[in-house]
Amino acid sequence: REVPSRGTGKDDPIKGKSYAIDPSSPDIRKITKAFRWYSPQFSPKEVPRFYDLSSITENPTAFRDVIDILVSRYSAPSSKPTHVVAFDARGFAIGAPLAVQLGVPLVLLRKSSKNPGILVQSEGYTKEYKEDHDERMCLRIDALKPGDSVILVDDLLATGGTVTAGLELVCNLGATVLEVCCILILSSFNPVSRIRASHDGRFKDVSVFSIIEDSSIPPINCRDPVNWKERRRIIDGERTDFI
Ligand code: HSX
Ligand code: ADE
Question: Among 15, 124, 152, 176, which one has the highest count of C-beta atoms within 10 angstroms of its own C-beta?
């Protein structure tokens, strides 16, 4: 399948060596239409729009389109990685089918030393929302080596803090990053510029690919339950009085 890419350009919100696909193409419109969000009232975190990856994973057609676009992009000999490196936890849902289709290993970037073995850990990083604990990414020290060329996969990029931690680890192990890819980029945070400016410009040439941008996701994609006036409750036990 042909994957159109929009290159650099003055009015490109993702400036520099980074790409998003033409939002008017039919596949992209389908994925954009499928991506739901929730307001803070129904979200686990206080962000204006909490984007829900399960709107893609629970929609087999949209999910397949996402994976097909990525497989097509990374299967050409010149762009094929030796490894797919996916972020804990939502990056796993995208990285796993992608790695299987490409026939390359899937490396799991884990949060807070959840993986066994001898680990390397990133510096602390922050995201669009703050967790209660210090956040660090960890990678097994023998997961990658010099000469490996990887793509880094996550569901979305907001501030780019998470991706920066992954770049740091992959580069510290001597591997090369071909590209960072995600389904959705929250362009208003300027994640690409932030990533490139971080660590004194260590990742200034990194290429970033996103399938869609949040500015193209309309208000109608909000899935807040309309008749639920109070703050959401997490219901114990069986679903009896739910909506
Ligand atoms: C969420 O925040 C997503 O799954 C990404 O891993 C991350 C994106 O936020 P940011 O680090 O770009 O601000 O956990
Ligand atoms: N991670 C960081 N920002 C997010 C957002 N707005 N929605 C879902 N996950 C996120």
Answer: 152
From CA 141, how far away is CA 76, in angstroms rounded?
Answer: 28
- The Cα 31–Cα 216 span in angstroms is 11
By mean pLDDT, which of 43-47, 88-92, 137-141, 239-243 is the weakest? 239-243
Q: Is residue 128 among the annotated active site residues?
A: yes
Q: Write down the residue that tokens 């299967």 correspond to.
A: 75
Please identify which of the residues 73, 128, 168, 196 carries the catalytic annotation: 128
CB 163 within 8 A of CB 181: no
- 3-class SS of residue 210: strand
pLDDT of 240: 62
Architecture of domain 18-221: 3-Layer(aba) Sandwich (3.40)
Indicate if ligand 2 lies below 6 Å from the C-beta of 128: yes
Cis peptide bond N-terminal to 86, omega within 30 = no
Q: What is the mean pLDDT of residues 98-119?
A: 96
The domain ranges of the chain are 18-221
